[in-house]
Write a structure and sequence with these properties.
With 139 residues, the protein is an alpha/beta fold. Helices cover 18% and strands 54% of the residues. Strands 1, 2, 3, 4, 5, 6, 7, 8, 9 and 10 form a ten-stranded parallel β-sheet that branches. The radius of gyration is 19 Å and the shape is globular.
Amino acid sequence: MFNSKNKKESIVDRKSTNRNIIGKGTKITGDLISEGDFRIDGEFEGTLNTKGRVIIGKEGFINGNVQCTNADVEGKFSGEFNVSDTLTAKTTAYITGNVTVGQLSTEPGAAFNATCNMKGAVKELGKETNVKKGKQASA
């Protein structure tokens, strides 16, 4: 009925969908490292490092350093935010500090009072400017 091949596949599937939640009313201080996603509906102070997505719920608050692949912010963030792909600031978001992103998406109403650096933006802008002037961009 069960064979080792199916067992290995189900273990891998569960590992890739690893989701961590800090619930409303919970406060955690320290350093967190994970391969999976994080949802913060409570408070977190410290360093969070994940290869997954960080979601800060409406009631959530992070004060510290975060490094992740993607992030969706509905609550509050203060500190150093390094998002290698896309940071989405929802309508209720309040973000302060220093932010480094691949892409930034902000909805109307979001408060974004941070210093922001976009990775790769200068290189792309240089290519686009040369094309507009009638020159081909070199690779």
